[in-house]
Amino acid sequence: SSGINAEWPLRPGEFRRIFLDMGFTEMPTNQFVENGFWNFDALFQPQQHPARDAHDTFFISDPQMTPKEAFPPGYLEKVIEVHEKGGYGSTGYNYDWKIEEAQKNILRTHTTAVSTRMLYKLGQQEKFVPTKLFSIDRVFRNETLDATHLAEFHQIEGLIADRNLSLGHLIGVLHAFFKKLGLEKLKFKPAYNPYTEPSMEIFSYHPGLKKWVEVGNSGIFRPEMLLPMGLPRDVNVIAWGLSLERPTMIKYGINNIRELIGPKVNLNMVQANPICRLDKN
Description:
By secondary structure, the chain is an alpha+beta fold.
């Protein structure tokens, strides 16, 4: 039988405390089943993107589709337009967008689907209010299992929506956030994401593996994603996401993620060891 290592030092509650200390509000994440629209399309991720294939995503067979009427009609038309023809300074992707792809139900591949819904609600408010949000919950990827990958893992996500935010603000927030986790050796590498520009991968040094390990992704959400939602043009959203498991591996020198969750968990070790907590200072 499989299990979860109960002695995890970096538990969801510890991350939650860090976010709350930094002034963030938690998003509701109790919807594991999502549709392609909120998980992909609203994020300006094209329908031919490989992340939407069966080898990366778990598709739901029953119910297989979300009714078209469930999507906000005015917003839906703007998303279709920016995908097919562009807008907001973008040329778009120049392809025939299909509603059937957006209707497909899936196990959410990232908690950014929750962030998308929350940002849409923020854009529909009569007056914009700067916002700091976070989420901690499970996501699902059709991954090949190895020492650092699981098909189900916990994603931690933070975002800040405010006027005139920059990449410098994002880097500063990331250093402050990871310092609270005890991870002070960070590197940033330029990356590509369909929904953020610029984008950065976040690396931290793993003393056990003796190499730099990717612990998260980050970036500034693209205007093609934010402006159709109704957010003001001078509002930027900086965001980052990471797994719960990898920072735990780095901080405590664990070399195989399957020692934290799954059939390789040593239950005798779990019972014999005291519960550890994240350093408070």
